[in-house]
């Protein structure tokens, strides 16, 4: 029939059809005409775009002074698969300010999907994605390239960006930090350092330039960045031009070594990610040819290691043949960007019998991990591709299955980055397990193969290889007994986690057959080889994990399958658990019906095992608890809940409490009882959110005390091990969950709710439209199927129970723990998912038994509680090595009235800064008695009270021999330092005082005066190590008041300023002194008294024969005949002094030998006709010889011929007396006691131009803000090499208080109370006296009726670069050394007049 129709004659067109055709032709012609007219006549059409297109519309080359560009189709969504580029170039004398007005891109970790990439002359500045606008930035040069790349998945609105040419000077203002620095020295730091943390998403760039022919030296003085995977980092480039090499990324909290450039420019780039922040860094740069005197210890440059790059080939030149035992291969130009359009390949060959281990140590290839495009690194051996890599995440180590390996690297013509660097090494097949952490090589005829961590989930991002070779003539049969891998991807049908099996000829090593890839949960069929070698490779990606697999091989399938060796027993396996009986029987029956839509209020207390888990968040300074999760009471000591409830605060037990007997959360109910938490145990396999799966979502909480059951509080029963509920079984979920289903703002219900939920079969729940691969066999799904019925439990119920009954009268069993559900709760129409309790019965029992065992054992062998009068303890295996990840505790208790004396006989632990790794911590009723590590034997410790707690922990790295210690009960009087006292007055001194105290000291003074109502504690001398960079005391004195458990700390004190007197309204005070292992000081001396008017005094020092000598101090001092100019209290950079208005000023001049002329070296002060007061550091070797010096007075011009008439008088020196405590030459971190006396060979003739200055009264301290004057011939401009001024200068400097000047931003632990600081706070005002003034006077005018000038300070030290460094100057405080001055002058007089 159809054929017949086709043969019929065509009929003619109807009139209607003719008309329609005519109309169509006419309209088409009209439209074409309109289009032609539009393009011919339109005058305002845009000009034709010259040059290449950006790929997103508009030109690629942007050369205007300012401009705007956007993503393709903006503000509508951009397209997939786009690649756009913009080349921005401005005037050569300008730089580029770039900012984004709008920014909305696909959000991916590491920006591996859609991204904007910025590149300058040094390489890639940064990659940006997501919805957070990048902060404004300023380029280093006049050129900047912007790339925009999209993948083939999600799209979004895109971005709109602007640029503008600006002068380099505006960089700091725009970006918030960074900029262009020039000159011989300068500073750079993160904004607000150290008071404020640096911001997230920051990019700061500094371009440093020193004079041509010189080099830049960068020194970090503070460095505190977030250590997490170097997300925040500093990168230093050796120059600013293309090709300048990078010194690598600096991150964490370790102070980097100084860096020196090879030219006169350097670039420092700081970048932070969008997560955590920290303090930041502070650094100085200098011209490296300048030698700068410093009071900080010298640093040793880090030795550099050079890697010789093997030759590479590009194009079709063939692979580079690499042979030997080990080596390094790198992309061309590494670590600088590799060239475009490159193709390099290497063939690595090692000796027969060896395999090749390859570890990629650096990877920066544009692309998305697991979906590489043109730029990629491909690794293969004779049998398979071992990996295709791009992106920035380092892949796992690979091992070849043969003695050759091929590596190929290729790139296209677009984005490039650092490329890669990899180390290779010939290894033995027997070392596979050690190298990869899994797999092995075997010649046995039968054996078992398991995935890593079996039967727990295998690890992500791993490569495992099993290499099995059997005798010739044999064949291998491989059988899988268990198989659970990530399912095949639904869209691409790829097995991202997979097993490949290779059948290999054992003689020729030829590949005979390949099996796989295998993934999912279907058990692969039995495999029988043709050859005698079997190779199995297991690859996992970065994402979903599963349980893994177990298999065995055999050469004789008729024999029984091999079995796993028996699990080694735990010492706690046989400990009985006193399970509650009865359980699951509420005194108040619940109201249960067949079906409840959206749940209903529960009968109060009808689910008596329901727990309200409440947390105290760190956003609230005072304890304030609120409901966060549910739980189930299963034992008098234990609550069962979900592991995900403890993603935060898992280690902060004090932030949790478990409340039972509750119904309404809005108020405190008479029936409720809340318990503290003594331990939280999350399942070891729970890795969310690190790994995107919530399998193993189970936790146990140990309560701080036993629960007392009642009518409103009782226990739920546990189900039988591995019991699986049938489909449709009705169970009940309870909790205070969100009733609204609003996932963005969930609110806990006021009263307890219940909901009936039938069990959904596992096969149904794992359907792709439900929970697919996210649901595991260790979970239960519950809910209804019709759209108008409840299908979910809401977020607030996390951790709460799902309980079921076997029959109407049977006890309630907790079969499920609320784990996860759909976003939007019931609105998303998916079942809720619960952790299946029956799958974890062995784990629950093991945790409880282990906790009972640990409660009574130390963890290092032997009991935890040591109750006796003496004993010993040690780390496990001592004197052998202790274990990694050890956790040991001892509670030592002696009879009441005695103290615990602990003595270490041996001590050797891994050494670490702040004892962050392996450590021993000691505590008693007061608190810490010290934390110890390294190989230094700790000092003996005596507890406060009759109990001493000791803990030992180790990390998973280095181990050592550990320690052995003994302990005994002692009387309080037997303490090695400190002791117990009951007298009304007494003295407290640190060990060895006034010499330095010992490292790792722990001393306790227990003062109990029954009759006292008030005890006064006063410190007369105090020098302890200063606070650390975090502001915490490390060596400290701590004072407690009260008795027993009610002891309260009144404060910790450290540093160099004595604490204010402390008045304790009690008859008991305890004083504890602790020191760490570094930086010991002279310590402290103090006293206690019950009567503030009675002060215990030290025993008088033995008399000296010169004590009674009287010094003839000048009667007229501090009264210049020429009045100095003091009208201006603030003088910027100083001014010339009125000649001879400071008549005590001395120019101390030295020459190593005549006729070399004398040169001005230091200043000094005339305090007596025979004595000059100056600084001790002026006489450091070799200038410590008196005959090298002369003291010149009456000077104004340094060239005395310019003083007309000249009043200059110069005197020889016959004695130099330096303070014996001045140790700067031996320890350049300590510049205290910087004072010296110079005795003149003949008395000075006092004139109008020469007269002495007065000494201040002993121990007087000038108030902060007092304007005093520094004088001298110091460098006027603050040069690094001081230049002597031609004329005497003066500068007014107000005194700065000790607390301000000792801050870390100023002089920190270099400052002592025997010093004075002076300077201004504003950056444009003088803050320093220059180096040339060393030893000169810091003079203050008294406020008496007849005011005189007193020398309160001696110029000691200041910032490098003088006023440029913006720190106060530091002076030796003369009033602190009054006794020293008196004593040494008297001693000199005595020795000079003593008959020979």
Describe it for me?
With 1396 residues, the protein is mostly beta strands. The protein has six domains: 61-287, Spermadhesin, CUB domain (Jelly Rolls), CATH 2.60.120.290; 319-427, Spermadhesin, CUB domain (Jelly Rolls), CATH 2.60.120.290; 437-565, Spermadhesin, CUB domain (Jelly Rolls); 600-852, Beta Barrel (Thrombin, subunit H), CATH 2.40.10.10; 863-1089, Sandwich (Jelly Rolls); 1135-1386, Trypsin-like serine proteases (Thrombin, subunit H, Beta Barrel), CATH 2.40.10. The chain has eight helices and 81 strands. A seven-stranded antiparallel sheet has the order 42-41-38-39-40-44-43, covered by helices on one side. It has a six-stranded antiparallel β-barrel with strand order 45-46-47-50-49-48. A hairpin with a 6-residue loop joins strand 64 (1036-1041) and strand 65 (1048-1053). The longest helix has 27 residues, at 15-41. Mean pLDDT is 84; it is low at 1-50, 291-316, 823-827, 1323-1329 and 1360-1364. Residues 56-166, 177-288, 316-427, 438-556, 860-970, 977-1091 form the CUB domain. It comes from Acanthochromis polyacanthus (spiny chromis). Residues 288-321 are annotated as: Disordered. One of its GO terms (molecular function) is serine-type endopeptidase activity.
């Amino acid at each position: 029939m159809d054929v017949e129709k086709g043969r019929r004659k065509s009929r003619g067109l109807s009139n209607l059809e003719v008309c329609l055709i005519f109309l169509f032709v006419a309209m088409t012609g009209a439209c074409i005409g309109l289009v032609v007219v539009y393009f011919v006549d339109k005058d305002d059409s845009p000009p034709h775009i010259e040059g290449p297109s950006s790929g997103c519309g508009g030109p690629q080359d942007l050369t205007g002074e300012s401009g705007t560009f956007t993503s393709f189709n903006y503000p509508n969504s951009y397209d997939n698969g786009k690649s756009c580029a913009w080349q921005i170039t401005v005037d050569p004398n300008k730089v580029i300010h770039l900012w984004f007005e709008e920014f909305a891109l696909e959000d991916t970790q590491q920006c591996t999907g859609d991204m904007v990439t910025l590149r300058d002359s040094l390489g890639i500045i940064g990659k940006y994605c997501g919805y957070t606008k990048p902060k404004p930035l300023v380029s280093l040069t006049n050129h900047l390239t912007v790339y925009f790349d999209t993948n083939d998945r999600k799209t979004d609105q895109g971005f709109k960006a602007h640029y503008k040419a600006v002068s380099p000077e505006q960089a700091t203002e725009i970006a918030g930090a960074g900029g262009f620095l020039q000159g011989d020295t300068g500073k750079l730091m993160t904004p607000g350092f150290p008071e404020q943390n640096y911001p997230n998403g920051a990019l700061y760039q500094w371009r440093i330039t020193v004079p041509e022919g010189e080099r830049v030296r960068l020194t970090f003085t503070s460095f505190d960045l977030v250590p997490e995977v170097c997300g925040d980092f500093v990168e230093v480039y050796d120059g600013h031009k293309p090709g300048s090499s990078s010194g690598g990324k600096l991150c964490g909290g370790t102070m980097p070594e100084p860096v020196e450039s090879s030219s006169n420019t350097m670039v420092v780039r700081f970048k932070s990610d969008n997560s955590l922040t920290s303090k930041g860094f502070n650094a100085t740069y200098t011209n490296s040819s300048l030698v700068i005197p410093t009071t900080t210890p010298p640093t040793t440059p880090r030795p550099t290691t050079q890697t010789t790059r093997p030759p590479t080939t590009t194009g079709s030149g063939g692979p580079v043949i690499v042979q030997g035992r080990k080596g390094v291969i790198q992309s061309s130009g590494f670590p600088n960007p590799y060239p475009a359009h490159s193709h390099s390949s290497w063939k690595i060959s090692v000796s027969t019998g060896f395999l090749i281990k390859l570890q990629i140590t650096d990877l920066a290839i544009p692309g998305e991990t697991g979906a590489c495009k043109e730029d990629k690194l491909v690794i293969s051996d004779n049998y398979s591709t071992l990996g295709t890599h791009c992106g920035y995440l380092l892949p796992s180590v690979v091992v070849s299955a043969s003695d050759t390996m091929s590596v190929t690297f290729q790139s296209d013509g677009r984005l490039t980055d650092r490329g890669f660097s990899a180390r290779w090494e010939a290894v033995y097949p027997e070392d596979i397990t050690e190298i990869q952490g899994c797999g092995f090589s075997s010649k046995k005829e039968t054996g078992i193969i398991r995935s890593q961590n079996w039967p727990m989930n295998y690890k992500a991002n791993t490569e495992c290889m099993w290499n099995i070779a059997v005798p010739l003539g044999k064949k291998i049969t491989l059988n899988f007994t268990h198989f659970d891998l990530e399912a095949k991807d639904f869209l691409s049908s790829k097995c991202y986690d997979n097993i490949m099996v290779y059948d290999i000829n054992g003689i020729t090593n030829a590949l005979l057959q390949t099996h796989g890839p295998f993934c999912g949960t279907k058990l692969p069929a039995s495999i029988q080889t043709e050859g005698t070698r079997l190779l199995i490779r297991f690859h996992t990606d970065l994402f979903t994990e599963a349980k893994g697999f177990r298999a065995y091989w055999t050469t004789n399938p008729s024999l029984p399958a091999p079995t796993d060796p028996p699990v080694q027993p735990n010492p706690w396996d046989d400990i009985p658990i006193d399970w509650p009986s009865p359980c699951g029987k509420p005194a108040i029956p619940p109201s249960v019906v067949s079906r409840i839509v959206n749940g209903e209020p529960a009968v109060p207390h009808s689910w008596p095992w329901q727990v309200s888990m409440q947390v105290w968040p760190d956003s609230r300074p005072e304890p304030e608890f609120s409901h966060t999760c549910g739980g189930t009471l299963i034992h008098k000591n234990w609550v069962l809940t979900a592991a995900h409830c403890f993603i935060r605060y898992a280690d902060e037990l004090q932030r949790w409490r478990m409340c039972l007997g509750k119904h309404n959360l809005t108020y405190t109910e008479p029936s409720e009882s809340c318990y503290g938490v003594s331990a939280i145990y999350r399942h070891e396999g729970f890795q969310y959110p690190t790994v995107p799966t919530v399998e193993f979502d189970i936790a146990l909480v140990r309560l701080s005390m036993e629960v007392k059951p009642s009518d409103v509080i009782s226990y739920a029963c546990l189900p039988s091990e591995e019991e699986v509920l049938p489909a449709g079984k009705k169970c009940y979920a309870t909790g205070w969950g969100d009733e609204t289903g609003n996932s963005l703002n969930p609110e806990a219900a006021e009263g307890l709710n219940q909901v009936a939920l039938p069990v959904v079969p596992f096969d149904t729940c794992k359907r792709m439209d439900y929970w697919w691969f996210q649901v595991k066999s260790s979970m239960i799904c519950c809910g209804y199927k019709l759209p108008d019925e409840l299908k979910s439990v809401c977020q607030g119920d996390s951790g709460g129970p799902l309980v079921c009954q076997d029959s109407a009268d049977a006890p309630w069993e907790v079969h499920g723990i609320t784990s996860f559900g759909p976003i939007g709760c019931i609105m998303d129409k998916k079942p809720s998912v619960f952790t299946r309790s029956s799958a974890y019965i062995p784990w629950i029992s093991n945790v409880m038994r282990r906790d009972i065992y640990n409660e009574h054992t130390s963890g290092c062998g032997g009991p935890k509680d040591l109750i006796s009068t003496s004993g010993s303890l040690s780390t496990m295996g001592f004197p052998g090595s202790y274990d990694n990840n050890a956790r040991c505790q001892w509670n030592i208790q002696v009879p009441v009235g005695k103290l615990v004396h602990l003595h270490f006989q041996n001590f050797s632990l891994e050494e670490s800064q702040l004892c962050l790794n392996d450590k021993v911590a000691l505590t008693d009723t007061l608190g810490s008695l010290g934390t110890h590590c390294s190989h230094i034997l700790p000092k003996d410790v005596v507890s406060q009270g009759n109990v001493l707690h000791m803990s030992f922990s180790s990390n998973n790295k280095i181990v050592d021999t550990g320690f052995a210690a003994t302990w005994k009960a002692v009387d309080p009087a037997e303490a090695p330092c400190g002791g117990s006292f009951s007298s009304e007055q007494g003295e407290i001194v640190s060990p060895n005082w006034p010499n330095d105290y010992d490292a790792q000291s722990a001393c306790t003074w227990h003062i109990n005066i029954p009759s006292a109502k008030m005890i006064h504690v006063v410190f007369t001398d105090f020098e302890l190590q200063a606070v650390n960079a975090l502001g915490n005391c490390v060596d400290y004195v701590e004072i407690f008041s009260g008795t027993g458990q009610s002891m309260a700390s009144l404060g910790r004190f450290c540093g160099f300023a004595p604490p204010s007197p402390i008045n304790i309204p009690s008859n008991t005070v305890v004083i504890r002194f602790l020191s760490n292992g570094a930086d010991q000081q002279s310590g402290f001396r103090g006293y206690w008294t019950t009567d503030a008017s009675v002060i215990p005094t030290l025993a008088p020092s033995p008399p000296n024969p010169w004590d009674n000598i009287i010094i003839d101090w000048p009667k007229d001092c501090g009264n210049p005949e020429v009045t100095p100019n003091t009208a201006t209290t603030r003088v910027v950079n100083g001014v010339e002094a009125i000649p001879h208005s400071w008549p005590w000023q001395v120019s101390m001049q030295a020459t190593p030998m005549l006729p070399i002329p004398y040169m001005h070296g230091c200043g000094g002060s005339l305090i007596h006709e025979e004595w000059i007061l100056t600084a001790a550091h002026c006489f450091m070797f070799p200038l410590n010889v008196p005959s090298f010096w002369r003291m010149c007075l009456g000077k104004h011009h340094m060239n005395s011929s310019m003083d007309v008439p000249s009043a200059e008088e110069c005197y020889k020196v016959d004695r130099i007396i330096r303070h014996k405590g001045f140790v700067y030459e031996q320890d350049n971190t300590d510049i205290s006691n910087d004072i010296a006396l110079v005795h003149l060979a003949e008395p000075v003739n006092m004139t109008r131009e020469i007269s002495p200055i007065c000494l201040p009264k002993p121990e007087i301290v000038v108030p902060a803000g007092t304007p005093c004057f520094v004088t001298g011939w110091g460098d006027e401009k603050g040069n690094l090499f001081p230049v002597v001024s031609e004329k005497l200068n003066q500068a007014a400097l107000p005194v700065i208080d000790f607390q301000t000047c000792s801050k870390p931003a100023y002089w920190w632990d270099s400052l002592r109370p025997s010093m004075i600081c002076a300077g201004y706070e504003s950056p444009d005002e003088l803050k320093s006296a220059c180096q040339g003034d060393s030893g000169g006077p810091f003079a203050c005018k008294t406020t008496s009726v007849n005011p005189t000038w007193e020398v309160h300070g001696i110029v000691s030290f200041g910032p490098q670069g003088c006023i440029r460094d913006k720190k106060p100057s530091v002076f030796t405080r003369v009033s602190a050394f009054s006794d020293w001055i008196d004593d040494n002058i008297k001693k000199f007089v005595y020795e000079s007049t003593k008959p020979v």
